[in-house]
Design a protein that fits this description.
single chain; mainly beta; six-stranded antiparallel β-sheet; globular; binds beta-D-fructofuranose
Amino acid sequence: MNDDRPQYHFLPPANWMNDPNGVIQWKGHYHLFYQYNPVGPFWGTPHWGHAVSPDLVRWTHLPLALMPTPGGPDADGCWSGCAVDNDGRPTLMYTGAVMVDTDGQLGYRQTQCLATSTDDLLTWQKYSGNPVIPMSPPGLEVLGFRDPCLWQEDGVWYCIIGSGIRGEGPTVLLYRSENLVQWEYLKPLFSRDAHSIDPLWTGLMWECPQFFCLGDTSVLIVGVADAEAPRFYTAYALGSYADHTFIPDGIARFDLGADFYAPIAMRDERGRIILWGWSPEARGAGPGGTAWRDNPIQRAAGWAGVLTLPRILTLRPDGLLGVAPAPELHALRGTHHRLTNIDLTPDSSHLLEVVRGDCLEIIATVELGTATSCGLKVRCSPQDEEHTLILYDHTAGHVCIDRERSSFDPTVVRGIDGGALVLGPEEPLALHVFLDRSIVEVYVNGRACLTERIYPSRPDSLGIDLVAHGGRATVLSVDIWDVSGP
Ligand code: FRU
């Protein structure tokens, strides 16, 4: 079972992890916190786990940073939040959760809390006046009120909080403070009507908002999840921001795969925006589909949840959001294989002889030729009974991961997930794939990414195949590296 445990992606030594939290570079080192249940590999009362890295690749696990205080405003969970440098003092702002019974309905009271450190982020002291935002704005009936994200403008702190207003729709609420302790509610930074579906479904409530700029463009990221969501996903809006008003140009899906959620972004000392997301397990669910939070397979494995690789976000000259794996990941590359000029003919197999594996980095550049679609299969069994297909459909301008045949395990999530990606007339397809046991991350032409979890059943499902349909295509080059843990 632990053959599914990723080798070079970040995850705690054991137990449950969900959202990444509070990433910050401090004295040159990257600190990463995350939602963690120390009791077992299932969702429980969230604590903050903590790890540190000199290079985004090698992580050292550190003691828990935050744990619930009995009787306190976070008695039932230290939920997601962020980390900032408040004039030399490392500070966390997070959501405290307390379970409450309102007319027989169990729910969580959500308030915003602070903690600070005086020993370079190792131990944290909660602010004695917590919560610093004790309630949602008066007059608004909110469905949730959580996951603060902070930034500073001209010495003043601003905070957005994920929310949804009953009868109105999902929203991000904007606050202001001089000192991180006293907060004034300003207005929604961005909201949509409940159940909006154009251009994509954005639900009733948003979680884990992130707000930052790439040059003159502002980026807002939100997690879309509520009781009606079939699976949760991440949306982003590019736009302009002035006078505390965000004017989005549109809204689109970030990460076109099914298993990416609750990302957090940071600006590092080099000025790069680096983003990590949580990739939950995608198996063990029975009818009803919610068993990803707790199921016998996860309990037997002893762990659940993994973070994606660090991604660098940029604004491209064409105005699109660029996304690429951090170049630091090159340090993980082992044995290199390179093949060039492979002609792909329709519907025949091009199973690579030279390399097999479940921990690989693959970069393939494909001239589309007359093919209507082409791509890669990974984790193929020798006779192709099992495989996971990464396919670009040239005709439709669509990229997807198809895991209909990724496993014989009846409890795994199947289906085909993807989204629009239109290549230029002469633009080759550039696939960059990271395979790490049960997680697949795909970056396509520097402007799309997909994350999915797969659990092949056969130990010999280790092959790589190249495919073209409807015509011929040419793989100009394919570079493959064996990747081992740091
Ligand atoms: C997102 C989320 C956050 C919340 C945290 C609790 O996955 O639901 O909104 O703060 O997880 O673990």
